[in-house]
Amino acid sequence: MSNIQKPDSDITTIIGHIQKGGKIQPFLKDIFLIKLNVAGLDYIDNIDEIFSKIRVGDRLELIREASNEYDKHAILVKYHGEKIGYVPRKDNYVLSKLMDGGKHLYGVVDSFGVDEVYENYEFRFVNFKIFLNDY
């Protein structure tokens, strides 16, 4: 008789599942990466119209823009198909590498509003969270 005992743990269940042809999903939910502000809102012509529709919890589309002449790591942010700005340059390097590697990233509006008025100019902001969907 052998002195080796079969471990009684969740890992044996997982190994048995794999040996029987089962697949393991790496994550059960999306992974939160970072919270940022949308950069460049002021350069969007119809931002007033778009801004009036934005709500907390709305999904934002992130599109890699490798051919951007100003930033080779640029990531475009869209709201319902309309451009609203970019992921800030100071934060886009790692995110762009994830996207270049085939990972799917998306944003969710966390907060938005008007921060302050300066010389009759309203400073709009959109804070959003970026998530990694890895299934």
TrEMBL record:
Residues 31-132 form the HIRAN domain. It comes from the Archaea. It holds the Pfam family HIRAN. Keywords: Endonuclease, Hydrolase, Metal-binding, Nuclease. This is Restriction endonuclease. One of its GO terms (molecular function) is endonuclease activity.
